[in-house]
Amino acid sequence: MLLDNCTAPVFASTLDGFISHFGHRAFHIKDVTELPRGRHSSDLEWIEFLRQSNDVWLFISGDMRVLRNKAERAALRSAGLHGFVLASSYQKTPLHLIAATLIQRWPDIEQVTKLLAPPAMHEIPIGKATRLRPLPI
């Protein structure tokens, strides 16, 4: 799983500590050394990197604009990725609560990725009783 620049690096390390027990990994974009421009890679660059990879990737973004930009939407569709966007309510939420929510939502994320063929996008809401919301891609 890749977490983009619109998420805090602590989310990747926290989530990685939890999901590594299930055979998965989480990386913040700053830690992906194969990206030529590292943390400064554009959305199109990291999407292309994930598309070309032999690994199965998911991503989490804190920026809904990844779905509003035509070029990025087209790249996401062609890359065949499962993506998750944090709801806008996360912007005013303390970091420890966001990290806890991502861990709490991991079973939902796993279930969605097993049930739906990529590409698929979902919004991760802040409420515990609220389901992941499908987004058009």
Output the number of helix runs.
Answer: 4
Based on Cα principal axes, name the global outline. Answer: globular
Overall radius of gyration: 14 Å
Instruction: Kindly report the average pLDDT value.
Output: 92
List the helices and strands and how they pair.
Elements lengths: L1 E2 L5 H11 L7 E2 L14 H10 L5 E4 L8 H10 L2 E5 L8 H21 L4 E5 L8 E3 L2
Parallel strand pairs: 1-2, 1-3, 3-4, 4-5
Antiparallel strand pairs: 5-6
Helix pairs in contact: 1-4, 2-3
Structure description:
The chain has 137 residues and is α/β, with parallel strands linked by helices. It is built from 4 helices and 6 strands; from the N terminus they run βαβαβαβαββ. The protein has helices at residues 9-19, 43-52, 70-79, 95-115; strands at residues 2-3, 27-28, 58-61, 82-86, 120-124, 133-135. It has a 6-stranded mixed beta sheet with strand order 2-1-3-4-5-6, with helices on one face. The longest helix has 21 residues, at 95-115. The model has no long low-confidence stretch (mean pLDDT 92).
Summarize the structure.
The protein is α/β, with parallel strands linked by helices and 137 residues long. The protein has helices at 9-19, 43-52, 70-79, 95-115, and strands spanning 2-3, 27-28, 58-61, 82-86, 120-124, 133-135.
